[in-house]
Amino acid sequence: MARIVVVGSINMDLVTVTARFPGPGETLMGERFLTVPGGKGANQAVAAARLGARVSLVGALGRDAFGDQLYTGLQREGIDLTHVRRLDDTESGTASITVASGENQIVVVPAANARVTAAQVEKSAAAFDGADAVLLQLEIPLEAVEAAVDVAARAGVPVILNPAPAQRLPAALLKRVRYLTPNQHELAGVLGENADGDFRALMACAPCPVVLTRGSEGAWYRDGGEPVHQRGFKVDVVDTTGAGDTFNGAMAVFLDRGIDEAVRLACAAAALSVSRLGAQGGMPSLRETEALASALK
Asked: What is the mean pLDDT of residues 268-295?
């Protein structure tokens, strides 16, 4: 059983399903509204836990109704919440998501997530000891991400950094990351390059190994040599929300099987996740993931 530490955001997703996206100033009648747990940190933690890992989450929630619901839901998934702070003077993070024709648009309000600090991460150092991987994203302050890389380095634990939402990152930080897991636009943002160029050339510019997600095409990965392609798994797409988080959670869980197998199983898990509605609601089990990967090997 893999041991994974996730340092990242916890949100309540406010999901509206509609036939199409509204234009500026336009009001549409929606088809369905849901409140579902989300946040890239929490999503990746749940994805890893569903796949059988023991997961510790480092993050922050407000002491509000959404915070209570999110905390209880994460407990139900068996995730260790020892290092999740509850804050009295701010609300929990939210993401307003519109889903139309299998695509989504998202507006995130960080709230408590903006209060995850380097000091909090340092205080959680015991959770890193003996872990198999540390998962990071960019929905919390960069100082907390950098602190997590420091703590992971001291503990000898490989770091997987999912650079979303994308921002320019210093080369010194990237060089300490075991795998960077962007899509093409995120990789361009991280490197300060043009996103319209050849993605293979972009991958070669990164100062660390890159696993580049390409939606239904699957993923490309480069670890010192030429980029290798892992094809995607064909499914009927319902909702792409959380697909990248599922991919990252799975990659962390299967990293000890080698990069080839980790990326293959991560693609299978991500494919299963888009066949269902909701970020965490679509995340598959270990049995489902291995069955799909074996059927299409």
From this structure: 90
Rounded to whole angstroms, how far apart are CA atoms 153 and 147? 10
Cβ 144 vs Cβ 121: under 8 Å: yes
Q: Which two tokens stand for residue 190?
A: 């991280």
What are residue 11's DSSP bridge partners?
38, 93
239 as an active site residue: the answer is: no
Per mean pLDDT, which of 49-58, 217-226, 275-284 is the most reliable? 49-58
Contact 77, 50 (CB under 8 A): yes
CA–CA separation, 32 vs 134, rounded Å?
A: 36
Give residue 106's pLDDT: 85
Of 13, 80, 239, 245, the active-site residue reads: 245
Cβ atoms within 10 Å, residue 252 = 34
Domain ranges (residues) in the chain: 3-20+33-295
Asked whether the predicted pLDDT for residue 297 surpasses 70, the reply is: no
CA distance 113 to 124: 16
Which class is 3-20+33-295 in CATH? alpha beta
- Cα angle 169, 84, 78 (rounded to 5 degrees) comes to 110
At 203, the pLDDT band (50, 70, 90 cuts) reads: very high
